[in-house]
């Protein structure tokens, strides 16, 4: 609980630096799947980050005045009948002590209480534009406050994006978060290694996916962090392939991009390996380029380096490799300048990772700007966590040598920036081609 209190204190300090006000954060709603069935519930990440509260139908208000601060949790009340059907509820009586808030009120009181909390507040903080429903509720709350103008009640004159404030907080992980991310990385690596061991020609992609899910559950992960990509052959050239229905063929590669969620934190690994356990010569040629690009990016990770520098390191290796195998013309600097490599490497080399697989936080340095007023790429700091994932994707085309047709390769790992470099969180599954072949033989 202390971690939650500390996080809210950091948010209070950020709000106080802007003159104070009232912050409002709602958790995710339950979503109907079909008929009487809902999707498995997953709370809003920033709400959970600040509260630790995992039930639906909840909201948090933080009031920061000149001389006082108050945190109010809105949640469902105890209901014995509903708990028989749907499970335990914390309730308003137990919530303050359990989650370290000043008081808890029924969620049904939110629309009545918020106008009171907003009276004479200089600003409101919420996720601007993230939800039409929330935008409309905020409009109604402000209208209720403004209706009291003759009673000398003032309404907030400013609105700040709460998502941006909390996103900056979430960008640098504390030691508690890193312990979870390390364990999640170990579980995910174990699942990918399991997939390598069981894959054989003639299996379906969904059979391999089932092996991943089995290992996640066996090791204590309640769910994947995102929809798994299990893409054999030409399917690997579709970056967000999701069908996972095709038969795996002898001689093809299998690209698996999959991650587990543990205690609300995501892991994200991609491995590419031969379905029959042995890389062909053209597959090895391209695989070596991607692996070298990932290693170049990883070698660049350290505090003070800009996030974009990692991508540029990977691009230089990939462009040089594509020239060497004849897929793009040289010279190297011209290929980078014109972006000809993008036909085969069209995405960035990584993304922030945390409670969301594509985690929050700006990729630009918020306190810097160039002569055109544009902020440069983010400077890396210890505690930042992200993926490093270069790739090469060669779709069949008349101007492409046939030996490279339908080869899609991506290698992705999760890292945390340390004081001297980086720590690999997902090193428990091989990426070296010889080691992959040995694991599959074993």
First-last Cα distance: 45 Å
Radius of gyration: 25 Å
Structural class: alpha+beta
Major sheet: order of its strands? 6-5-4-1-7-8
Please describe what this structure looks like.
This protein is an alpha+beta fold. It folds into 2 domains: 2-170, 3-Layer(aba) Sandwich (Creatine Amidinohydrolase, Chain A, domain 1); 172-441, Creatine Amidinohydrolase (Alpha-Beta Complex). The chain contains 13 helices and 19 strands. The protein has helices spanning 2-17, 45-51, 80-86, 91-99, 110-118, 132-146, 162-171, 175-198, 205-218, 281-299, 307-324, 332-338, 433-441, and strands at 21-26, 32-34, 37-38, 59-64, 69-75, 103-106, 123-126, 158-161, 223-224, 229-232, 253-258, 260-262, 265-266, 269-274, 385-388, 391-394, 407-410, 413-417, 422-424. The strands form 6 sheets. Strands 6-5-4-1-7-8 form a 6-stranded mixed beta sheet, with helices on both faces. Strands 9-12-13 form a 3-stranded antiparallel beta sheet. Strands 10-11-14 form a 3-stranded antiparallel beta sheet. A hairpin with a 4-residue loop joins β4 (59-64) and β5 (69-75). α8 packs across α9 (205-218), α8 (175-198) packs across α13 (433-441) and α10 (281-299) packs antiparallel against α11. It is globular. The model has no long low-confidence stretch (mean pLDDT 96).
């Amino acid at each position: 609980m202390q971690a939650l209190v500390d996080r809210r204190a950091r948010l209070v300090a950020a709000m106080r630096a802007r003159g104070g006000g009232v912050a409002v954060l709602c958790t995710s709603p339950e979503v109907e799947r079909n008929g009487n069935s809902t999707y498995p519930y997953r709370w809003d990440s920033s709400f959970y980050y600040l509260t630790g509260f995992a039930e639906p139908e909840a909201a948090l208000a933080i009031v920061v005045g000149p001389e006082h601060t108050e945190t109010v949790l809105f949640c469902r009340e105890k209901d014995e009948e509903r708990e028989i059907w749907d499970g335990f509820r914390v309730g308003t009586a137990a919530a303050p002590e359990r989650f370290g808030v000043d008081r808890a009120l029924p969620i049904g009181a939110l629309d009545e209480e918020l106008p009171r909390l907003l009276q004479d507040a200089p600003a409101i903080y919420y996720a601007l534009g993230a939800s039409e429903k929330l935008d409309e509720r905020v409009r109604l709350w402000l209208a209720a406050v403004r209706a009291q103008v003759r009673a000398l009640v003032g309404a907030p004159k400013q609105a700040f994006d709460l998502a941006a404030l909390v996103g900056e907080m979430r960008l640098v992980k504390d030691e508690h978060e890193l312990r979870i991310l390390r364990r999640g990385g170990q579980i995910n690596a174990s699942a990918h290694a399991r997939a390598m061991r069981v894959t054989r020609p003639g299996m379906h992609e969904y059979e391999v996916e089932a092996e991943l899910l089995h290992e996640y559950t066996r090791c204590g992960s309640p769910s994947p962090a995102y929809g798994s990509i299990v893409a054999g052959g030409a399917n690997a050239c579709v970056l967000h392939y999701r069908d996972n229905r095709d038969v795996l063929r002898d001689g093809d590669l299998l690209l698996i991009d999959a991650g587990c969620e543990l205690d609300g934190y995501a892991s994200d690994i991609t491995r590419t390996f031969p379905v029959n356990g042995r890389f062909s010569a053209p597959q090895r040629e391209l695989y070596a380029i991607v692996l070298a690009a990932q290693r170049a990016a990883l070698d660049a990770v350290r505090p003070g380096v800009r996030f974009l520098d990692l991508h540029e390191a990977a691009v230089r290796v990939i462009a040089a490799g594509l020239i060497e195998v004849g897929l793009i013309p040289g010279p190297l600097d011209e290929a980078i300048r014109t972006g000809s490599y993008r036909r085969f490497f069209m995405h960035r080399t990584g993304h922030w990772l945390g409670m969301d697989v594509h985690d929050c936080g700006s990729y630009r340095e918020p306190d810097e700007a160039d002569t055109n007023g544009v902020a440069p790429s983010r400077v890396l700091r210890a505690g930042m966590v992200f993926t490093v994932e270069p790739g090469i994707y060669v779709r069949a085309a008349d101007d492409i040598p046939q030996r490279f047709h339908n080869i899609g390769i991506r290698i992705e790992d999760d890292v945390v920036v340390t004081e001297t470099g980086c720590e690999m969180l997902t090193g428990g599954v091989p990426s070296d081609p010889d080691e992959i072949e040995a694991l599959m033989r074993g």
